[in-house]
Structure formats: C-alpha cells, structure tokens
Amino acid sequence: MTAGTYTKQEQEPASSEVTEVAPGVLRLQLPISMPGLGHVNCYALVDSDGVALVDPGLPGDESWSALGDRLKQAGIPLGRVHTTIVTHSHPDHYGGSHQLREETGTELLAHADFTSSPAADDANADIDLELLELDPDALVELWKAKLANRGSTPWGTPREPPPDEAIRLFIQTDVAGSLPRFRVPEPTIRVADGDAVRLAGRDWFAVHTPGHTTDHLCLWDPTEGVLLSGDHVLPTITPHIAGSTDLDDPLAAFFKSLERVGAFTGVEVCLPAHGHPFTDLRGRTASIRRHHGERLDTLRAAAAALGRAPVGAYMKELFAERAWGDMAASETFAHLEHLRVIGEAESSRDADGLLHYQLRTPERVGSPPRA
Q: Helix crossing, 250-262 with 281-306: angle to 10°?
C-alpha cells in the first residue's frame, strides 16, 4: 500500500469537509487512531430546535477541536446542540458525549441496554485524584495493575490489558486536569426497539441490532429512506463480534439483526459510523453474512487436525498472527459458541478451567452431545 492510499474506507483519515448526506443530515468526520480505523462519522441532524449529534467521537482535545471546527463550518453554534445520540457503548462513539453535556447540557439518547465497559469504568472509579499527578507512564502501569484483577475470559485465559496507547486515552483528564474524561456516560433518554424519535423534522425509529455489542442501536427514517447504521453495517470491513457478552449466541443475534435491516425497503442511503455512505444495504448485509459463514467453514475445516483444542488454537486458524490476542480470541469464541449452539461442536473445561472445543464430524452432527 503506497503512501496516501487506503485499502479500506474505514482506515481513511478524517476529512475536514462537511457534507449533506441526506435531507437535514450533515456528515462531520472526526479523527481517531485505532487499529483499522482513521475516522468516525459524527452526523448532525438539523431541525428547528437545533441539532442532534450522532456518535461524537473520542474524548480529548483533538476530537473536540475537530468537532468545533466542523460545526463552525456548518454555521452551527455549539449551544444549538440539544441531543447527543450514541449508537453503542464503544469509546470512539460515546467519548465526546461528556464534554458536550458539560458544555451544552445536551440530552444523551441510547438504547435501553446501553451499558458501560466494566474494565474502563471500574479501573477509573477508584483512582485517587492525586494519582493523576503521577508520571503518565506510572499511571498507565497502575491502570494495568487494576485490570490484572479482572479475572479470566469466558474461555479461561487471563485477560490481556489494552495497549498502552488505549490506556492513555482512558485516563485523559479534563481541561482542569482533575477528572478522568473517559468514563462511560449515563443516558438521559433510553429507547427500546420500535420507539419513534423526532429528529431532523421527522420521525426516526429505533432498531435494536445486537451482535457487535448487545446495546447496538440503528435509527431508521422511512420518510427519506435513511438508515443510521453505526457499526452494525460498515461499507468495507466487518464489525467485531464479541463472544464475551450476555448473549447466548452473539453470532446468531448478529445474523438476525443483519437479516432484519437487510430486508428494509425504500433504503436510499445507509450512513455508517466509519467509511462512506452507501446505497446497497441489502447487498452489503449479505456480504457480511457470507464473510462470517466462511469463518465458520474455516473452523470446520481445521477441526480434523486440531481435534479437542482451546479457543486460542482455533483463533490461529482464523486470524493472521499480527491480530492474535483477546479481541481475536473473543470473536473466535463467538463462532465456536455458535457451532456449539447449533449442535456442531461440544465444549468442556480442563482442570485449570481452560475451555476446549471438539467440532463434531458430519456423521455425528445431530447426535446428542456427550455428557
């Protein structure tokens, strides 16, 4: 890949350009630096009362400055922002909501299941404010030590701490340098599937789309044929499906959510949280479904050689070495659990609590699991 080119739309750096992507909807790209991502799309939904902002990016000065610049370009005073909408509980989507609420008193709208990330929330909750005067590297190490007490993953391995760069984001301070700004927000408005929300002068409908997270929210505007898809449907990458959730079968929940939005009629444009707006929603949902189907087939093909094996062994069949780690293991776990739920795999733990899977041979699929 040569300098200045990107293989995936979602990797492209944030443009400062503000564009109208649907009637009354502006696209504001905010900078982020996360694996595989270069920007997050913050959408401004303009109405007679002011503006609602969808997914206001990461916390911190860079994103906040970019948001102010884009709003100024659009002729929108910050004080006109009346609502922040967060599609799901990941920091590149909710991070800027704290400062917006502090500055403007905005309402915060999210799905009824919106929840914090326990790792981030708990680690910040009991950090003495005086510790914020520590050397940044020392504070990162303190945060890692707190994370080390989180126990094991659902598949039985010790949890890995996030990269140091991510931890530094978690412990960013506010302008006065007094409080962690990465705390997960508390919504003031929680919506359930099918609820109507008045935005940009028309009704949008909440669509609960679990899979990427349990609390993922899309917003559907049947009047103009617009779907705000968050991370549920992205144009050139597939969202991470986490196995460590309260869902019994996260992959099946994701498939069902994909099928549901893919069946919407009258879609004129899909507005994702990363990458460019696109029109072929049905085709894209089918492509994502095929991708995960191929991953299931990869696991089936690997089963003969692996036999009874831990999640980590199967992970190495699905992902390149550079991606190995808890995130890749979590998605592998989600796929293995799906195979177990549909009767194609069995699982058991060894004496150390490490979960192993045995994929069942074709002749044994449909026979009862072993005790």
A: 160
d(CA 248, CA 70): 41
In this prediction, residue 343 has a pLDDT band, given cuts at 50, 70 and 90, of very high
Which H or E run contains 290? Answer: helix 281-306
Interhelix angle 136-147/118-125, rounded to 10 degrees, is 120
| CB 281 within 8 Å of CB 240 | no
Task: Report the DSSP beta bridge partners of residue 20.
Answer: 26
Same domain for 220 and 261, yes or no, is yes
Number of domains in the chain: 3
Strands 226-230 and 269-272: what pairing?
parallel
pTM of the model: 0.86
371 inside domain: no
**Contact call for residues 206 and 197 (beta carbons, < 8 A):** yes
Query: Which residues form the domain of 189?
Result: 9-115+184-279
Size of the chain, expressed as the number of residues it contains: 371
Residue 23, exposed/middle/buried by CB under 10 A (0-12, 13-18, 19+)?
A: middle
Please name which of 106, 131, 277 lies closest in space to residue 187, comparing C-alpha atoms.
106
User: Distance between CA atoms of 256 and 271, rounded to whole angstroms?
Assistant: 20
Which of 86, 67, 53 shows the shortest CA–CA distance to 188? Answer: 86
For residue range 45-74, what is the model confidence (pLDDT) as tens digits?
999 999 999 999 988 889 999 999 999 999
Q: Say if residues 322 and 308 touch (Cβ distance below 8 Å).
A: no
Helix (H, G, I), strand (E, B) or coil at 108: strand
- As beta bridge partners, residue 320 has none
Q: Which of 203, 205, 233, 247 is nearest to 111 (CA)?
A: 205
For residues 197 and 252, state if they share a domain.
yes
